[in-house]
Amino acid sequence: MNLREYLRNASEHIPAAPHANPRLETEVLIRHALRISREQFFADLERTLTSDEAAAMDALVARRASGEPLAYITGHREFYGLDFVVNNHVLIPRQETELLVDLALDFAKDWAPSELSIADVGTGSGAIAIALAINLPGATAFATEWDDGAIEVARANFRRHDVQGRVDLLQGDLLEPIQGQVDIIVSNPPYIPTDEIEGLAVEVQQEPRQALDGGLDGLDTFRRLIGQAPTKLKPRGLMLVELSPQQMDNAEILAAQAFPLTEVSHADDLLGLARVLVIKCK
Question: Residues near 159 by Cβ (< 8 Å), separated by ≥ 6?
Answer without folding.
Answer: none
